[in-house]
Every structure is written in C-alpha cells, then in structure tokens.
Request: fold
Amino acid sequence: MSNETDHDRPVTVDQEPGPTRPGTDASRSLRSDVAAEAVGGGAVPIAQVGTGTQAAEAAAPVTASITVHGTRGEEREDFTKAESRRLRGRSLSLLRSLAAPLKARLWGIAVVVVLSTGGQVAGPTLIAWGIDNALPAVLDRDDWMPAFLVVGLYITIAIVGAVLTAWYTVLAARISQAILFDLRKRVFLHTQRLSLEFHETYTSGRIISRQTSDLDSIRELLDSGLNQLIQGVLYMVFTAVALVFLDPTSGLVLAIALVPLWFLTRWFQQRSQQLFRSTRTTSARVIVHFVETMTGIRAVQAFRKESRNETEYGEQVELNRQANARVFNLFGIFDPGLVLIGNATLAAVVIVGGFRVVGGSLEIGALLAVALYAKRFFDPAQELAMFYNSYQSASAAMEKISGVLEERPSVPDPAKPTKLPDARGRIDFDHVEFAYTADRVVLPEFDLHIPSGQTIALVGSTGAGKSTLAKLMARFYDPTAGTVTLDGVDLRDLDPKDMRRAIVMVTQEAYLFSGSVADNIELGRPGASRADIESAAKAVGAHEFIMALPDGYDTDVNKRGGRVSAGQRQLLSFARAFLADPKVLILDEATASLDIPSERLVQEGLETLLADRTAVIIAHRLSTVAIAHRVLVMEYGRIVEDGTPADLIAGTGRFAQLHAAWRDSLV
Ligand SMILES: Nc1ncnc2c1ncn2[C@@H]1O[C@H](COP(=O)(O)OP(=O)(O)OP(=O)(O)O)[C@@H](O)[C@H]1O
Ligand SMILES: [Mg+2]
Reply:
C-alpha cells in the first residue's frame, strides 16, 4: 500500500515536526499492535481538538505551497491560484495512480462507448433515408427490398446498441467499483498508519466524512456523472456531425442556437460553483457535529448539553437546507432555460426546413431527421450541467482525500529498521525535550535512565506530564530534541514490530473491539491458545467475572449482557498486556477504575507480572506505589524527586507530603 501512495509524494518541504522518514514497512501488522489501543481512547483527543488545531496552524510557517500541504487549510475556501493548482495536481496524480491498473479496461470502455453512441445517432439518418428512398421505391415500383434493408439495419443497430450499452454499463460499474474499493482501502490503511498526533488534531467526524460523504461524491461522479459526460459529449458531437452532413443549412441554425446555450451554461457554472461548494461544506459540518455529539454522548447527556446541541445542530442543518435551496433555485432557471433554447431551435429548424421542403430544396424525410437531431441535441445539455455538479463535489472530495493521503506519520517507521528480537528492557532518555506544539514546551530537557527489570512509579499532579513521558517511551510521539532508546537503540530506528512487542502501554481507556472476550485478550498475542488466554485472565484476576458472563470467554463484548464495566474493561486490557508479555510495560492510570479488592488482586498479579520486566506505573493511588523499586515525582514537566519509596517517604519532599496526606485519608 505504501508504495502506491508514496510515489505521489510532492516535492515540497516537509513541515511535519520531528524527523520524517517515509514509512515503508507495509507488512507491519497493526492487529498485534496492543499499544495502539491508546488511540481508541476517544474522550481525551476530542476534548483537545480545538486547541490542537489552532496551535498547529499558528505554528505552521506562512508559505504558499505549505499552507495547503496535507490536511492543513482543508476548511479554507480562499485558495490562491498557485494553491488551487497544487490541489488540482495532487488530486490528478491520485486519480492517475488509481486509474493506472485499469488502463486496459478503460480503453475497452472507450471503444464500446464510441460504437454505441454512433449507433444511437445513426437512427434518424436511417429514418430519413427510409422515407426519402425506400418508401418511394415501395410506392412507385412495388420494390420492398430497400425498405426491408432499412428496417433490418435499424433493428440490427438497435440490438447491437442495446448489447453494447449493457456491456458498457457493467464495465463502467466494475471500473468505478474497482477505483472506489482501492481508494477506500487506501484511506483506511493510511489513516490507520498515521500517528497519534494526527488523530488528536483531526477529528473523527472529519475522518468519517472523508470515508462517507467524500467517497460518496466520487462514487456519484464515477457511476453516473462520468457516463453522462462521455455519452453526452459524444452524442452532441456525433449529432452535430450527422446534421452537418445531412443538411448544412439546419446545421447553421443549430450553430446559432449554441450561442445562447453557451451563455446560459457559463452563467450556471459560475453561480453553481460557489453554491455547490457551500452545500458541501455545510453538509460536512452536519456530519462532524453529529459524530462529535454521538462519540461524546455520555458527556452530552451528563451535562444536559442536549438542548444546546439541538440548537447548534438545527442551525447547521438549516444552513445546509438553505444552501440546497439556493442550488434548486438555480436549477429552476437553468432547466427551463435549456428547454426554451431547445424548443426555439427545434421551431427554427422546422420553419426553415418547412419552407425549403415547400420550395423543393429539402426532402421530407431529411426534414424529419433534422428535426429529430435538433431535438435530441439538447437532451444531454442538462446532464452535462449535472455532471459539472458532480464533478465539482468529486473534485473537492478528491482534494480532501488526497490531503489525508499526503499526511505522513509524524512518527514514521524507520527506513532501515534495527532488529531487536530479544530486548532486555533498558530505557534511556538522553537530553530529551518535548513539545506538542511549537509554542509550549511540555517537558523541558531531562535525562532519565531506567535499568532493565526496574519497576518505577511515576506520580505527580494532573497535567505534570506523566502521560506525555509515557507516550514518548512507547513512541506515540518522538522527542523534539534528544533520544529515547531501548537497550541503546534509538526508538526511531527500531523495527516497529520488535518495538511494539517489547513495549506495551495500557491506558485508562481500555478499548474493547467488537468480538468476544477471548478475541479481545488474544490481541495481546495473536494466535494464543485458549489455555494461554485463560491463564492470562487468571493472573490478573479477570477469570471469575469472565466466567460469570453469559457465554464466558465467548461473550460478545458489544452485545447486551456482554457489556462490561470500566473496571472489568481494565482487567481485560491487563490480561491482554499479560499475554503480550512485553519487556517494558507502561501502565497509565490503568488501575484507576478498579475497586480496592480488584486492585489488590491485580497488584498480586502485577508483582508476578512485573518480576522480570521494566515497568512504569502511573497512578494517583499511592497503594500502587508500594510495589515500585523507585519513585519519580513530576511537577510542571520536570522530575523533581527520584528515589526509593522508603527514602522519599522518610524525606520532607513532595512525595513525603503526598504520602502523609494519603495515609491520613485512610484513617
Ligand atoms: N495532544 C496534546 N496536545 C497539546 N498539549 C497536550 C497534549 N496532551 C497533553 N498536553 C499538555 O501537556 C501537559 C502534560 O499532559 P499529560 O497528559 O502528560 O499530563 P499528566 O501528568 O498525564 O496528567 P494526568 O494526571 O491528568 O493524566 C498538559 O499541560 C497538557 O495540557
Ligand atoms: Mg495522564
């Protein structure tokens, strides 16, 4: 997959923070990516979306070619000429890469469409010939041969035309399905590969509208629009040619009619471009608003935000309705305008032709054919205008999708991965500094060395930077400066598979995928046996509650009755991590939802689990700290205390205060 998208990579300066190396390891299995579960914790990223995007935009340098790089500037409508050209170029190269594997079929369809349109256009000429030549032959000489010939030919052409059209329809549908399938897959695989940073700023609503409404408008273009365009243009050209050959004078009348047609179409295009764009942006906003409400439905209901949402949603829908209404108004003028021009032309052709038939310079059959041609000439005009509409939305969709595909993971896979199949679990932070956005350093420069096998408790107040440190350690982000190494190998150079096997992070939002309980635990080590799954569950104390579920380990976690509580979810993600058996385990508030007995149970399991591995436990409950060899206290992004629990408690520092307060709370 990566090969197909990487070659379109534009030669602009890469503005992603941190070193960017294009990902190459397509074989990397994301299913085994236990740590990826942190991505599933939807609540935090969504809450941060607003500030994240603004900050990212503020940090972006103001250079013309850069402002439209990737998904940046996606919501804008005021593109400069250079920017529009770049967007078009990007869409085109995506289109080319999609069409490339279908070249042979595309040529096939071109031949079929030329033949079938030619057949359709031949009809009136045959009728004219029949009336002017075959009919007189029957009447004058009782010679039926020409009549049979014409009728036979007409029927043959009609049958061949029908067969060709059927063939064409199937072929065109197959091609459009193939393109859509490819595109859908590319968007999915690509967004899945993009780093946490992208997903924290690009809302799920926007990703969903890429996958739904944008792909839909491309489908619409491919399914009907493109057919209409090709057939319509060919039809008009063939008809005009036939008319000119049959009767040049009538051709001239038609040529005159082209003038008002041109003006009307141009007027329509200019007006509609803007209107169609606003229907698209308003409908995208409706989707985004809908998705965000539904993903945050708990918060919405808990804070009684329904009525405000209702008003907001109502406004979005109303704006969308107004935009659509304006489009329909436009069609209200355009459609009758087309009909008027068509009928006036037909009348002119018939009047001019009628006089000439009376004068003897035109035969009656030819007049009939000319009238038929003149009438049918305008038929595709409206379809062409509609095509323009679907073309507009499809090209806007293409611009956005190609933008997503242009995004590079901010945490790219290494070009030359270093293998580390048997990691020992030593972690070193050397001169590491980290900032999410250029304007605020979250972790000022620090060093931290964790020998293998050490269990560390990381404590500190909310917002101190504990999760950030953990995310650096699990390489969800790369440091702004300095290096994070595992056994001396920079995480940026480490084979992603080896890294994900060695380092596993379990977060508070233990995400469960659809499927059975066993499936969810198995994610830790794909292919694990049922016995292994059960012993992992037993080790973390999840076995009992799983057995109490309706179907035990086979209970569907998303079905009624199979729903598990937050604490149980955490136990499951523990079992998952246990099964994964990583060298380095990071638990970010992973025990926060457990009640005291469960937590104790887990802690007993934890002690065996942590026995020969490096572990970092982030917990507000100090009971968890008891099993740690070493405690780190963080304040404002800095590690302010570092020592054994006993030493720190004996001292007078921050941890001693925290511990005293905690002990008092227990009494
Ligand atoms: N994705 C992000 N983009 C920008 N800033 C962020 C992002 N995530 C966290 N921050 C900021 O970084 C700082 C540290 O956050 P972090 O999540 O590491 O805190 P924490 O110590 O884990 O807090 P808590 O105990 O509440 O989980 C905070 O000030 C937060 O606002
Ligand atoms: Mg945190």
Summary: The mean pLDDT is 81. The CA atoms of residues 68 and 79 lie 9 Å apart.
